[in-house]
């Protein structure tokens, strides 16, 4: 029996708040501040985002965020978008999500960084309550991002430390990968390690093995995307033989460093040529800790269920593969051990009940 993927309990580790707005919400918020959008009908706007993202370039992909960030400059807008994100994820069967965003991008209207964080946290809390009222039990942790091309990483890291007991579970750096290695923000990562705040790093998406190695050198616990680690896997030299892993790939596999793969987004940005040929399949087969994520639900026109469906239909993933990826995501969540163990059990039992 084929699993109904929407009903399966899923854990989402890599989802950007400013990349997942509802099209109707974006239209309404933009109209309220007089921001011109490329389309004002929600369906047409959603299509524009996906078509714009399918450029094969991470830099052009990121340009779409000019419109979403423009409307996220007030506490009211931030709280609304955060609450709606939780509701949308819960409706898709996500039982735990780690949603990330860069507070520094939401201060153009005069908000202090602290006000941004508190508004988003209020929205997540409201979304969790409203989802529960609708019969869906879900939880959300926040990852605060610093933009790697800017110089605000210490402020973002300090925010992660300040709000680590108020729903912020970790830190990340985002933005253009090439030319902006994680070691450029080494002081922020040093602070986070000293304060025992976990972090993940965007690496191995637009840039290759050097990016992955640099992320590991600053102590990342997970790799945001990370799929370019497949560049360190050499195909078997004889039919039926096993591929050979280079030292970097072996390190990532052997230490179970989780890969936050986002299939549709990876194809859009050029990190993968297609879903059918996505490196996540090879890496999964070789024993890497591969997880399945959305990256940006609006920009990629996707959901966690959709990503899993594409892997099943186009890359040959079995339901057992998808269940293992879901368990791997639960095991990698930035949660205290008792909560993580309970999440793993919920995910494992939930998938088992559907098969």
TrEMBL record:
Keywords: Hydrolase, Metal-binding, Zinc. Its EC number is 3.5.4.4. Its cofactor is Zn(2+). Transmembrane segments: none annotated. It is an enzyme of class 3 (hydrolase). Pfam families: A_deaminase (PF00962). One of its GO terms (molecular function) is hydrolase activity. Residues 9-348 form the Adenosine deaminase domain. InterPro entries: A_deaminase_dom, Ado/ade_deaminase, Metal_Hydrolase. The keyword Zinc applies. Gene3D superfamilies: Metal-dependent hydrolases. Belongs to the metallo-dependent hydrolases superfamily. Adenosine and AMP deaminases family. PANTHER family: ADENOSINE DEAMINASE. This is adenosine deaminase.
């Amino acid at each position: 029996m084929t699993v109904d993927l929407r009903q399966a309990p899923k854990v989402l580790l890599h989802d950007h708040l400013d990349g997942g707005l509802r099209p109707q919400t974006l239209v309404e918020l933009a109209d309220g501040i007089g921001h011109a959008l490329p389309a004002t009908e929600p369906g047409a706007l959603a299509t524009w985002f996906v078509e714009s993202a399918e450029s094969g370039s991470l830099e052009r992909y990121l340009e779409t965020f000019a419109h979403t960030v423009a409307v996220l400059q007030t506490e009211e807008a931030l709280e609304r978008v955060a609450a709606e994100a939780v509701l949308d994820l819960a409706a898709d069967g996500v039982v735990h999500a780690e949603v990330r965003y860069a507070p520094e991008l939401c201060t153009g209207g005069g908000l202090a960084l602290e006000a941004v964080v508190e508004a988003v946290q209020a929205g997540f809390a409201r979304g969790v309550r409203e989802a529960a009222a609708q019969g869906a039990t879900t939880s959300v942790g926040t990852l605060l991002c610093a933009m790697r091309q800017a110089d605000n990483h210490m402020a973002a890291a300090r925010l992660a430390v300040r709000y680590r007991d108020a729903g912020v579970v970790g830190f990340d750096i985002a933005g253009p990968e090439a030319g902006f290695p994680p070691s450029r923000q080494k002081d922020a990562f040093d602070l986070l390690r000293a304060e025992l705040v976990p972090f993940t790093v965007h690496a191995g998406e637009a840039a290759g093995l050097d990016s992955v190695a640099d992320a590991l050198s600053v102590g990342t616990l997970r790799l945001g995307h990370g799929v370019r680690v497949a560049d360190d896997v050499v195909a078997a030299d004889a039919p039926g033989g096993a591929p050979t892993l280079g030292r970097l790939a072996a390190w990532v596999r052997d230490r179970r460093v989780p890969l936050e793969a986002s299939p549709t987004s990876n194809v859009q940005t050029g990190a993968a040529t297609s879903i059918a040929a996505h490196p996540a399949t090879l890496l999964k087969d070789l024993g890497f800790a591969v997880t399945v994520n959305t990256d940006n639900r609006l920009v990629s026109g996707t959901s966690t269920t959709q990503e899993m469906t594409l892997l099943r239909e186009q890359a040959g993933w079995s339901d057992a593969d998808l269940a293992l990826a879901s368990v791997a995501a639960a095991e990698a969540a930035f949660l205290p051990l008792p909560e993580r163990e309970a999440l793993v059990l919920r995910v494992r039992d939930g998938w088992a009940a559907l098969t």
